[in-house]
Design brief:
single chain; alpha/beta; Rossmann fold; 6-phosphogluconate dehydrogenase C-terminal fold; 2 domains; six-stranded parallel β-sheet; three-stranded mixed β-sheet; 10 helices
Length: 274
Protein backbone atom coordinates (compact mmCIF):
# COMPACT_ATOMS: atom_id res chain seq x y z
CA UNK A 1 0.00 0.00 0.00
CA UNK A 2 1.35 3.39 -1.02
CA UNK A 3 0.15 6.77 0.32
CA UNK A 4 0.79 10.14 -1.30
CA UNK A 5 0.57 13.18 0.97
CA UNK A 6 -0.03 16.58 -0.61
CA UNK A 7 1.04 19.15 1.97
CA UNK A 8 3.51 17.94 4.61
CA UNK A 9 2.48 20.17 7.49
CA UNK A 10 1.15 19.35 10.95
CA UNK A 11 -1.83 17.25 9.83
CA UNK A 12 -0.17 15.51 6.89
CA UNK A 13 2.93 14.66 8.92
CA UNK A 14 0.92 13.48 11.91
CA UNK A 15 -1.19 11.18 9.73
CA UNK A 16 1.94 9.76 8.10
CA UNK A 17 3.67 9.14 11.43
CA UNK A 18 0.63 7.44 12.93
CA UNK A 19 -0.06 5.40 9.81
CA UNK A 20 3.57 4.27 9.56
CA UNK A 21 3.62 3.13 13.18
CA UNK A 22 0.44 1.10 12.67
CA UNK A 23 1.56 -0.35 9.34
CA UNK A 24 -1.37 1.08 7.36
CA UNK A 25 0.88 1.84 4.37
CA UNK A 26 4.29 0.55 3.30
CA UNK A 27 5.51 3.63 1.43
CA UNK A 28 4.89 7.35 1.84
CA UNK A 29 5.34 9.90 -0.96
CA UNK A 30 5.44 13.61 -0.15
CA UNK A 31 4.34 16.46 -2.42
CA UNK A 32 4.86 20.01 -1.21
CA UNK A 33 5.85 23.26 -2.99
CA UNK A 34 8.41 24.00 -0.28
CA UNK A 35 11.64 22.06 -0.97
CA UNK A 36 12.92 22.58 2.59
CA UNK A 37 9.70 21.07 3.94
CA UNK A 38 10.17 18.00 1.77
CA UNK A 39 13.81 17.59 2.74
CA UNK A 40 12.96 17.93 6.44
CA UNK A 41 10.19 15.32 6.10
CA UNK A 42 12.64 12.91 4.44
CA UNK A 43 15.25 13.39 7.17
CA UNK A 44 12.63 12.86 9.90
CA UNK A 45 11.39 9.63 8.31
CA UNK A 46 7.92 11.04 7.70
CA UNK A 47 8.06 10.30 3.97
CA UNK A 48 10.20 7.96 1.89
CA UNK A 49 10.43 9.97 -1.31
CA UNK A 50 9.49 13.31 -2.87
CA UNK A 51 7.40 13.71 -6.01
CA UNK A 52 6.10 16.62 -8.06
CA UNK A 53 2.89 14.86 -9.04
CA UNK A 54 0.86 12.02 -7.52
CA UNK A 55 2.10 8.66 -8.89
CA UNK A 56 -0.57 6.54 -10.57
CA UNK A 57 0.27 3.52 -8.42
CA UNK A 58 -0.69 5.21 -5.15
CA UNK A 59 -3.48 3.42 -3.30
CA UNK A 60 -4.49 6.58 -1.42
CA UNK A 61 -3.91 10.32 -1.61
CA UNK A 62 -4.19 12.57 1.45
CA UNK A 63 -4.81 16.22 0.59
CA UNK A 64 -3.42 18.19 3.53
CA UNK A 65 -2.64 21.41 1.70
CA UNK A 66 -4.41 24.76 2.40
CA UNK A 67 -8.20 24.74 1.93
CA UNK A 68 -8.01 27.02 -1.09
CA UNK A 69 -5.99 24.40 -3.02
CA UNK A 70 -7.96 21.25 -2.20
CA UNK A 71 -10.74 21.53 -4.81
CA UNK A 72 -8.20 21.92 -7.61
CA UNK A 73 -6.38 18.81 -6.42
CA UNK A 74 -9.63 16.82 -6.26
CA UNK A 75 -10.49 17.88 -9.81
CA UNK A 76 -6.99 17.02 -11.03
CA UNK A 77 -7.18 13.59 -9.39
CA UNK A 78 -10.77 12.82 -10.41
CA UNK A 79 -9.69 9.94 -12.65
CA UNK A 80 -6.95 8.62 -10.34
CA UNK A 81 -7.59 4.99 -9.29
CA UNK A 82 -6.63 5.64 -5.65
CA UNK A 83 -8.86 6.79 -2.79
CA UNK A 84 -8.59 10.55 -2.27
CA UNK A 85 -9.37 12.20 1.08
CA UNK A 86 -8.71 15.65 2.46
CA UNK A 87 -8.46 17.34 5.86
CA UNK A 88 -9.88 20.76 5.01
CA UNK A 89 -11.55 22.76 7.79
CA UNK A 90 -14.21 23.96 5.32
CA UNK A 91 -16.28 21.48 3.34
CA UNK A 92 -19.03 23.32 1.44
CA UNK A 93 -16.75 25.62 -0.55
CA UNK A 94 -14.53 22.74 -1.62
CA UNK A 95 -17.45 20.48 -2.57
CA UNK A 96 -19.21 23.29 -4.46
CA UNK A 97 -16.15 24.05 -6.60
CA UNK A 98 -15.59 20.37 -7.39
CA UNK A 99 -19.21 19.74 -8.37
CA UNK A 100 -19.33 22.92 -10.47
CA UNK A 101 -16.44 21.51 -12.51
CA UNK A 102 -17.28 17.81 -12.53
CA UNK A 103 -21.03 17.65 -11.92
CA UNK A 104 -20.63 15.22 -9.00
CA UNK A 105 -18.01 14.39 -6.44
CA UNK A 106 -15.59 11.74 -7.71
CA UNK A 107 -16.70 8.34 -6.44
CA UNK A 108 -13.38 7.77 -4.66
CA UNK A 109 -13.15 11.20 -2.97
CA UNK A 110 -14.04 11.30 0.73
CA UNK A 111 -14.16 14.83 2.24
CA UNK A 112 -12.86 14.79 5.84
CA UNK A 113 -12.12 17.21 8.66
CA UNK A 114 -10.13 15.94 11.66
CA UNK A 115 -10.99 18.02 14.73
CA UNK A 116 -7.41 18.02 15.90
CA UNK A 117 -4.61 20.48 15.56
CA UNK A 118 -2.22 22.84 17.25
CA UNK A 119 -0.97 26.35 16.69
CA UNK A 120 2.33 25.02 15.29
CA UNK A 121 2.99 24.00 11.68
CA UNK A 122 5.42 22.18 9.42
CA UNK A 123 6.70 18.58 9.46
CA UNK A 124 8.59 19.22 12.71
CA UNK A 125 5.21 19.66 14.42
CA UNK A 126 3.95 16.22 13.41
CA UNK A 127 2.68 14.05 16.28
CA UNK A 128 1.83 10.39 15.68
CA UNK A 129 -0.84 10.44 18.39
CA UNK A 130 -2.50 13.69 17.24
CA UNK A 131 -5.82 12.10 16.29
CA UNK A 132 -6.19 9.77 19.28
CA UNK A 133 -9.44 10.48 21.11
CA UNK A 134 -10.47 13.15 18.62
CA UNK A 135 -13.33 13.42 16.16
CA UNK A 136 -13.07 13.20 12.38
CA UNK A 137 -16.00 14.49 10.31
CA UNK A 138 -16.76 12.97 6.90
CA UNK A 139 -19.07 14.83 4.47
CA UNK A 140 -19.47 12.60 1.38
CA UNK A 141 -22.45 12.76 -0.97
CA UNK A 142 -24.42 9.90 -2.51
CA UNK A 143 -22.01 9.62 -5.44
CA UNK A 144 -19.11 8.58 -3.22
CA UNK A 145 -18.62 4.82 -3.00
CA UNK A 146 -19.50 3.28 0.36
CA UNK A 147 -16.34 1.19 0.07
CA UNK A 148 -14.18 4.36 -0.15
CA UNK A 149 -15.98 5.99 2.78
CA UNK A 150 -15.45 2.92 4.96
CA UNK A 151 -11.82 2.51 3.94
CA UNK A 152 -10.97 6.09 4.92
CA UNK A 153 -13.00 5.84 8.14
CA UNK A 154 -11.09 2.70 9.08
CA UNK A 155 -7.76 4.47 8.62
CA UNK A 156 -8.86 7.29 10.92
CA UNK A 157 -10.13 4.78 13.48
CA UNK A 158 -6.78 2.96 13.37
CA UNK A 159 -5.22 6.28 14.36
CA UNK A 160 -7.51 6.45 17.40
CA UNK A 161 -10.16 8.83 16.06
CA UNK A 162 -13.95 8.62 16.22
CA UNK A 163 -15.58 9.13 12.82
CA UNK A 164 -18.91 10.89 12.24
CA UNK A 165 -20.74 11.65 8.98
CA UNK A 166 -22.26 15.13 8.70
CA UNK A 167 -23.96 17.33 6.12
CA UNK A 168 -21.33 19.74 4.72
CA UNK A 169 -23.51 22.85 5.19
CA UNK A 170 -24.20 21.98 8.82
CA UNK A 171 -20.49 21.26 9.28
CA UNK A 172 -19.50 24.69 8.01
CA UNK A 173 -22.11 26.42 10.19
CA UNK A 174 -21.01 24.67 13.35
CA UNK A 175 -17.27 25.02 12.84
CA UNK A 176 -17.59 28.63 11.76
CA UNK A 177 -18.91 29.23 15.29
CA UNK A 178 -16.76 26.87 17.34
CA UNK A 179 -13.45 27.15 15.47
CA UNK A 180 -13.24 29.84 12.80
CA UNK A 181 -14.82 32.66 14.84
CA UNK A 182 -12.56 32.16 17.90
CA UNK A 183 -9.50 32.27 15.65
CA UNK A 184 -10.75 35.43 13.93
CA UNK A 185 -11.39 37.12 17.29
CA UNK A 186 -7.92 36.28 18.58
CA UNK A 187 -6.24 37.49 15.39
CA UNK A 188 -8.11 40.80 15.73
CA UNK A 189 -7.34 41.13 19.45
CA UNK A 190 -3.61 40.61 18.90
CA UNK A 191 -3.47 43.61 16.54
CA UNK A 192 -3.49 45.79 19.67
CA UNK A 193 -0.67 43.99 21.49
CA UNK A 194 2.76 45.60 21.39
CA UNK A 195 6.13 44.27 22.52
CA UNK A 196 6.03 46.53 25.58
CA UNK A 197 2.92 44.65 26.79
CA UNK A 198 4.58 41.23 26.75
CA UNK A 199 6.38 41.74 30.07
CA UNK A 200 3.00 42.07 31.78
CA UNK A 201 1.02 39.05 30.70
CA UNK A 202 -0.60 36.34 32.79
CA UNK A 203 -2.63 33.20 32.34
CA UNK A 204 -5.55 34.99 30.70
CA UNK A 205 -3.41 36.21 27.81
CA UNK A 206 -1.66 32.85 27.42
CA UNK A 207 -4.90 30.84 27.40
CA UNK A 208 -6.83 33.21 25.17
CA UNK A 209 -4.16 34.08 22.63
CA UNK A 210 -2.54 30.66 22.10
CA UNK A 211 -4.31 29.98 18.80
CA UNK A 212 -3.12 33.35 17.50
CA UNK A 213 0.21 31.66 16.73
CA UNK A 214 -1.49 29.53 14.06
CA UNK A 215 -0.39 29.63 10.42
CA UNK A 216 -1.61 32.86 8.79
CA UNK A 217 -1.93 31.57 5.22
CA UNK A 218 -3.87 28.52 6.32
CA UNK A 219 -6.36 30.57 8.33
CA UNK A 220 -6.77 33.23 5.66
CA UNK A 221 -7.72 30.39 3.31
CA UNK A 222 -10.26 29.01 5.81
CA UNK A 223 -11.82 32.42 6.49
CA UNK A 224 -12.24 33.26 2.81
CA UNK A 225 -13.63 29.86 1.88
CA UNK A 226 -16.20 29.91 4.69
CA UNK A 227 -16.99 33.65 4.62
CA UNK A 228 -20.72 33.13 4.03
CA UNK A 229 -20.98 31.40 7.41
CA UNK A 230 -18.27 33.37 9.24
CA UNK A 231 -19.14 37.00 8.42
CA UNK A 232 -22.65 36.88 9.98
CA UNK A 233 -21.09 35.41 13.13
CA UNK A 234 -18.57 38.24 13.23
CA UNK A 235 -21.50 40.67 12.98
CA UNK A 236 -23.29 38.91 15.84
CA UNK A 237 -20.12 38.95 17.95
CA UNK A 238 -19.79 42.68 17.29
CA UNK A 239 -23.37 43.13 18.55
CA UNK A 240 -22.62 41.10 21.69
CA UNK A 241 -19.42 43.07 22.29
CA UNK A 242 -21.29 46.36 21.92
CA UNK A 243 -23.90 45.09 24.39
CA UNK A 244 -21.15 44.25 26.87
CA UNK A 245 -19.60 47.70 26.42
CA UNK A 246 -22.97 49.37 27.04
CA UNK A 247 -23.53 47.32 30.21
CA UNK A 248 -20.13 48.31 31.54
CA UNK A 249 -20.85 51.95 30.74
CA UNK A 250 -24.39 51.99 32.18
CA UNK A 251 -23.45 51.11 35.73
CA UNK A 252 -26.20 48.45 35.81
CA UNK A 253 -24.17 45.85 37.64
CA UNK A 254 -26.90 43.20 37.76
CA UNK A 255 -27.30 43.24 33.97
CA UNK A 256 -23.54 42.94 33.59
CA UNK A 257 -23.32 40.10 36.12
CA UNK A 258 -26.13 38.25 34.33
CA UNK A 259 -24.33 38.57 31.00
CA UNK A 260 -21.08 37.26 32.47
CA UNK A 261 -22.83 34.51 34.43
CA UNK A 262 -24.48 33.16 31.26
CA UNK A 263 -21.05 32.89 29.64
CA UNK A 264 -19.58 31.29 32.76
CA UNK A 265 -22.29 28.61 32.80
CA UNK A 266 -21.61 27.76 29.16
CA UNK A 267 -17.96 27.15 29.93
CA UNK A 268 -18.69 25.17 33.11
CA UNK A 269 -21.15 22.97 31.19
CA UNK A 270 -18.44 22.26 28.61
CA UNK A 271 -15.95 21.29 31.34
CA UNK A 272 -18.49 18.93 32.93
CA UNK A 273 -19.14 17.20 29.61
CA UNK A 274 -15.45 16.77 28.88
Amino acid sequence: MKLAIVGIGLIGSSFALGARERGLFERFIGIDPNENTCETAIKMGIIDEIAETVPLDCDAILLASPCSTIADWVIKLSSHPGVVFDVGSVKGGIIDKVTEQLGDLPSRYVPCHPIAGMEVSGPEAGVKSLFEGNLVIQTPDSNVKTKSIKKVADWWKELGATVKVMDPILHDQIYALTSHLPHAIVFAYLQGIQNSHLDHIGGGFKDFSRIGASDARMWASIFELNKEKLVPLLDRFTTDLNQLRDMINSGKSEDLIGFLELARRQRVDYDRRN
